[in-house]
Amino acid sequence: MPHHTSLIALLCVGFVVAFALGMLAQRLRLSPLVGYLLAGVIVGPFTPGFVADQTLAPQLAEVGVILLMFGVGLHFSLRDLLDVKNIAVPGALLQIAFVTSIGAGFGLLLGWAPIGAVVFGLALSVASTVVVMRALEERRLLDTRRGRIAIGWLVVEDLAMVLALVLLPAITAALGAGEHVGAAGVLGALAWTLLKVAAFVAFMLVVGRRVIPRLLEHVAGLGSRELFTLCVLAIALGVAFGAAALFDVSFALGAFFAGMLLNESELSHKAAADSLPMRDAFAVLFFVSVGMLFNPSILVDQPLLVAATVAVIVFGNATIGFAVVRLFRLPTLTGLTVSASLSQIGEFSFILAGLGLSQKVLPQQGHDLILAGALLSIIANPLLFAWLDRWQKRQQPGAAVTQVLAENSEVPEHMGGHAIVVGYGRVGRELSRLLQDRGVPLVLVESDPDRVEQARKAGLVTVRGNAASEAILEATRPDTAQLAILAIPQALEAGEIIARFKSINPAISVLARAHSEAEVKHLLDHGADAAVLAERELAYSLADMVMAMPPYRPARVEAMPAPASSR
Predict the structure, then answer these.
(1) Do the beta carbons of residue 411 and residue 474 sit within 8 Å?
(2) The pLDDT value given to residue 403
(3) How many CB atoms lie within 10 A of CB 128?
(4) How far from the centroid of its chain's Cα atoms is residue 164's Cα?
(5) Neighbouring C-beta atoms of residue 59, cutoff 10 Å
(6) What is the dihedral of CA 439, 441, 446, 450, to 10 degrees?
(7) Contacts of 81 by beta carbon, 8 Å cutoff, 6+ apart
(8) In angstroms, rounded to a whole number, what is the distance separating the alpha carbons of residues 272 and 75?
(9) What is the CA radius of gyration of the chain?
(10) 319-324 long-range contacts, Cβ below 8 Å, gap at least 24?
């Protein structure tokens, strides 16, 4: 029996190389996306050595696109967009129009067809949400006014790109892949496409909104984790395929709507958590497959074109972003934060470029320039944020820090002797309520925005972010705290957090939760004063309840030794 197939080779080599280069990028304080794209370049046909199957990679990438869009819909927050709609909506639309015009003009100068030039410009105008979220979280800016503006801006960009992905096939079909047709033909094709999209949206709102959440709740009630995870994936892939087969709209739109509808369910957090490993795995394959299509020789053969593309991405997006923010009379710091956030491109650019290439409207040169611009702009983005940090310290050494602390609802300077609770899931929520009822001063750390809002509504001082981040941990003022409680289920991550707590404040007492003897040992080895094995404590509680029941209570009393005073 042969043990080597193209699919297995692609998966094994792709994941191994992506992991190695992703780790290297992380160590260099770059986005892991850079490592994944470089992994694709290494296993692609333009570099020596192993070459992955060129027919399988695009199919796996299509699954990656579906799950990426499902994740975007699952985390789509209309509330966050409405909070900053007055600047995010007009700002993002102006920025997209401005950069698309520059990029399209660039493409026309190179002799491309007008539709290909427009696709090129669109791809240069949409920033990577993954890169921006990481940069803002590291600086505790997600809950600041400028952070919310940046995120809302990206949401509008994402929605615009979803619409572009729907309309591009219709436009290219009407144009006959470059042939001249009248405006009536193009408008007719667009109208027909929008009609099909409207029918799909209506179907999802009428039928999908009722069926999908109920199906998820029913499967969750069966108690099978495997079936629940399979249900989430079946909804994502099934809706995407149904949207394409029945309504002739893109996989991307179907997956996006499936995620949006699941987001309305009370089980959305569980759905997101259970589908995350599969989404991450196929997202990595998506970026690897994109890298496989990139010919790195363009960096040497056409350096001026690459430099011009990077300039459009970095300076074009940053300039219009800053100008719009200042036009709305917002602070310079807000304008610079938005500018730094917009000065790179990522996943949506790759999806759009891939679609343009498959529709034969974007030339290979344009595709290579987009990938080169994305790689270089993502590498440069941390440097821009580092410059912004230095500028902020020079301009506002005290006021900026105070503003960030106030907007993040972090720990007041006078607070001390408090307890820090990490995680606001089921355990953290109940624990926080019990401690709050007993008058224990609390500080909560949570990364999920919905849980953060719930905690703040409950009156908890809350720091939004991942406690594994040094900056987030320091914001909880562990140097003045008496106790820290790790209510998160991830023991390995909790161990690192405990070690950092102890390094900042060796006198702090740390408690943690575990799910096995090995996890208990790991937590204690990292400095925890005690680790609660959840299953064991549950067994003890149930045993106490059993012995308190009438059939067993008399036997328990008779078995107990008599008090010394009665002997």
Answers:
(1) no
(2) 47
(3) 23
(4) 21
(5) 13
(6) 50
(7) 88, 89, 152, 155, 156
(8) 8
(9) 27
(10) 320/94, 320/95, 320/98, 320/99, 321/91, 321/95, 321/153, 324/87, 324/90, 324/91, 324/94, 324/95
Give the pair of three-digit tokens for residue 216.
């998820």
* Residue 440: closest CA among 427, 459, 467: 459
User: Distance between CA atoms of 88 and 154, rounded to whole angstroms?
Assistant: 8
Token pair listed for 150: 């940046």
Beta pairing partners, 530: 511
- C-beta of residue 415 within 8 angstroms of C-beta of residue 463: no
pLDDT digit string, tens, across residues 117-146: 999 999 999 998 778 877 887 777 776 778
**Distance of alpha carbon 357 from alpha carbon 370, whole angstroms:** 12
AA identity, residue 315: F
Query: Residue 312, Cα to own-chain centre: how many angstroms?
Result: 25
Other beta carbons within 10 Å of 413: 10
Q: Among residues 115, 6, 110, which one has the least CA distance to residue 55?
A: 6
Q: What is the rounded CA–CA span in Å between residue 42 and residue 18? A: 10
Lowest mean pLDDT among 33-37, 274-278, 552-556: 552-556
Residue 83, number of CB atoms within 10 A of its CB: 15
* Alpha carbon distance 96, 156 (integer Å): 10
CA distance 325 to 230: 44
**CA 419 – CA 432 distance, rounded (Å):** 10
Q: Tell me: pLDDT of 43 over 80.
A: yes
Closest CA to 477 of 505, 452, 499, 498: 505
Average pLDDT over residues 353-379: 89
- Spatial neighbors of 377 by CB under 8 A, at least 6 apart, are 310, 313, 314, 343, 344, 345
Distance from C-alpha of 77 to C-alpha of 73, rounded to nearest angstrom: 9
Q: What's the CA gap between 29 and 534, in Å, rounded?
A: 36
The confidence score (pLDDT) of residue 99 equals 94
CA–CA distance, 439 with 270 (Å, rounded to integer): 31
Q: What is the pLDDT of residues 273-323, one digit of tens each?
A: 777 777 788 888 888 888 887 888 888 999 999 999 999 999 999 999 999
For tokens 């026309």, name the residue: 108
What does the block give as tokens for 529? 């004063």
The answer to whether the Cα torsion of 109, 111, 112, 114 is positive or negative is: positive
**Cα separation, 234 vs 240, whole angstroms:** 10
